[in-house]
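Weekly puzzle thread! Below is a chain. First person to post its structure in token form gets bragging rights.
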Amino acid sequence: MSDRIQRTDVAVIGGGPAGLAAAAAAAEQGAQVTLLDRNPQLGGILNQCIHDGFGLHAFGEVLTGPEFAERYVRRAADAGVRLESNAMVAHLAASGELVWTRTSRRARLRAGAVVLAMGCRERTRGMIRIPGCRPAGVYTAGTAQWLTNLANVRIGRRIVILGSGDIGLIMARRMTWEGAEVIAVIEKLPYPSGLPRNINQCLLDYEIPLHLSHSVTRIHGRHRVERVTVSKYDEAGAPVPGSSFDIDCDTLLLSVGLIPENELSRRAGVRLDRRTSGAEVDASYMTNVPGLFSCGNVLHIHDLADWAAEEGERAGAAAAAYAGGTAQLEEEERGERTPVHAGDGVRYVVPQSLAAAQGRALLSLRVTEPRGKTKIEATADGRTIGSIAVRKAHPATMVQLPVEANGVAGPVEVSCS
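Winning reply:
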């Protein structure tokens, strides 16, 4: 590795929708931007999402995942972003210096600001501890999607899906199109965890059974999955005695949650929120480490790529302003942050802090359980600084709440009523 350090105003780690949007927005602010992505092709998970449903918020039209990614790749390239694929970031320091590798090459880069947009990864069988043998035929839903859509591999004929996350629901439809029989989708929660539109379009339209308050409690088969045992769960989250039944199948897909990819963030000293597993950020998406920003699924899990990209744009513009010196904050000013708390009926809120001189800010949140008509309010200093009414609130659907933060001194609480 050469001792020579390359320099850039803004470095973006991750080439998914949030990273591409952040890089493009920063470059459009006049910053010199370098984007580093470990994959051979930019676009992240979008490249294997050949179904449509993307772009309605960002572009006003319905696009497939690759089409959506291509729009942002072109935008970033046109803005002058230096795009580096097959570039694995091996080290990130709090100073903004990072080391990245490509085959036998290693390089050092010093950035005035860094945007963390590494995305997320899937929970595996080992993480949820399903007992039984370890046969072939157990896949995470994202891996099954890659094998089916990009590698043209048929993964099975009789399929059970554990978890009703969006990728699992979409794969239920995709496997049906491929000629496989999707016997059932099993969900441990008493309500689906995917978007309502995916429940309708991927399960109801194809008459695929959904078993709520159930989970797979054992996998059978020595060389290949032969069957799974399914048990009903009570309100306390414990299996109901005598409720178990077996389903014959040759494949089990796991769609049991996503985890933000924050290993680099931890090494750089970024403080994480235990509820989101992402960084704690202020309204400009800056972490507790000055100059390090976070956005997209590495910050908190989004249900729409459009919203991840829009969040990336805001983070990228803030990073460019910071690197250019127009948003450099003195230490005493950085101390003037008021925390944002999740109140009744709210699982988490991002960002986790606001500044009294912030002006308008946008809060992203999720409710704890399905609710009917709901009013969500942000209050501080005994007054309401933002509110929104939703016809239906669901944990699978992120809610965005604009607030007016001018003059806010006390803690902000976001709650449902």
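Puzzle host: Confirmed. Bonus trivia for everyone else. Residues 24 and 348 are 28 Å apart (CA to CA).
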